[in-house]
Amino acid sequence: MTFGVAKPMAPDRRAFDLSRSPSLGPALADALLANRSLPFLVETDRGRDVGRRTFAEFRSDVARLAELLSRRGVGPGARVALLLPNGPRWLTGATAAL
């Protein structure tokens, strides 16, 4: 499987200003909110689409996993290991761990 990702926007066309964020986590949260109805990730296999996620769907998945991690005692400064293949679930886990 391969994963298609949208090309980055030019700095003057971005929906958010990266210089306003203290770190990657808040910058991603802003991007997810500002672009919620747009495609975030397109998963393909042999040239055909096998899955699509909007920014809103991804944000919802990340929030759900982040809440689960928090309930299990994972907080700021904690180390989180992801034992997943490179793909959409890895990206969700890595973002939730921020």
Brief overview:
The protein is 39% helix and 17% strand. It has helices at 24-34, 55-71, 88-97; strands spanning 2-4, 39-45, 48-54.
General description of the model:
This protein is of the alpha+beta class and 98 residues long. It has helices at 24-34, 55-71, 88-97, and strands spanning 2-4, 39-45, 48-54. A hairpin with a 2-residue loop joins strand 2 (39-45) and strand 3. Helix 2 crosses helix 3 (88-97). The longest helix has 17 residues, at 55-71. The protein is globular and about 40 Å long.
Structural class: alpha+beta
* Share of residues in helices: 25-40%
Q: Which runs of at least 5 residues are low in confidence (pLDDT < 50)?
A: none
Instruction: Specify the overall morphology.
Output: globular
Mean pLDDT, nearest integer?
82
State the helix count. Answer: 3
The beta-strand count equals 3
Radius of gyration: 14 Å
Kindly estimate the percentage of residues that lie in beta strands according to DSSP: 15-25%
> What is the H/E string?
EHEEHH
Largest sheet: 3 strands, antiparallel
Which strands sit side by side, in order, in the main sheet?
1-2-3
Give the CA-CA distance, first to last residue.
26 Å
Labels describing this entry:
globular, 98 residues, 39% helix, single chain, 3 helices
Topology overview:
Blueprint: E1 2-4, H1 24-34, E2 39-45, E3 48-54, H2 55-71, H3 88-97
Antiparallel strand pairs: 1-2, 2-3
Helix pairs in contact: 1-2, 2-3
